[in-house]
Amino acid sequence: MVHGTPGYRGTRVGITQGSGPRHQSDHGAGEQLPRIRVPFWCAKGHETQLVFLKLPDEQIPRTWDCPKCGLPASRDPGHPASTRPEDEIFKSHLDYVKERRSSQDAEVVLAGALERLRARGVLPDQLLGDA
Q1: pLDDT at 118 over 60
Q2: What is the pTM of this model?
Q3: In this model, does residue 17 exceed pLDDT 80?
Q4: Distance (Å) of CA 67 to CA 30, 49, 87, 100
Q5: What pLDDT, in 10s, does the model give residues 27-39?
Q6: What per-residue confidence (pLDDT) applies to 70?
Q7: Exposed, middle or buried: residue 37 (CB in 10 Å: 0-12, 13-18, 19+)?
């Protein structure tokens, strides 16, 4: 079955309920969804104001990462959120790999990968300076 409307449409904060896509001229039709602005403060005093749908208080997050410094921010300016323990700080893929493998293991894996590339002719020895 073929529909005359383009793709799927979703809703987000700021979109009016029952309205069409933004590019249509009738986007003023419909009922405005209720929103609230919630401030968060980090330990360094940065204030961040976020907009949420009007939800019960227990459904709005108590903490939020500060976009300026990355520290946790709380909704109470007098009591900043406690800092994260070291094990909760963001880790890259390489950090996780380093936790699982030693430098010697990495050398063995790298040597094996290079050998397979050379065997397939993908990686000529001249590029590595092994000649």
Answers
A1: yes
A2: 0.44
A3: no
A4: 33, 11, 20, 31
A5: 555 678 899 999 9
A6: 82
A7: exposed
Quote the CA–CA distance of 82 and 18 in Å, as a whole number. 41
Tokens 């063995």 identify what position? Answer: 108
Q: Kindly report the average pLDDT of the chain as a whole number.
A: 76
Long-range pairs, 69-74, Cβ under 8 A, ≥24 = 69/42, 69/44, 71/42, 71/43, 71/44, 72/42, 73/40, 73/41, 73/42, 73/46, 73/48, 74/40, 74/41
Strand partners, 38: 50
Which fold does the domain 37-84 belong to in CATH? Answer: Rubrerythrin, domain 2 (2.20.28)
What are the angstrom distances between the C-alpha of 104 and each of 52, 108, 110? 50, 6, 10
CB-facing half-sphere around the CA of 44: CA atoms within 13 A = 10
Helix (H) or strand (E) holding 119: helix 103-120
Identify the bridge partners of residue 41 per DSSP, sorted by sequence position.
47, 74
One-letter identity of residue 103: S
Domain-by-domain residue ranges, the chain?
A: 37-84, 93-123
List pLDDT tens digits, range 74-101.
998 888 777 766 556 677 888 888 888 8
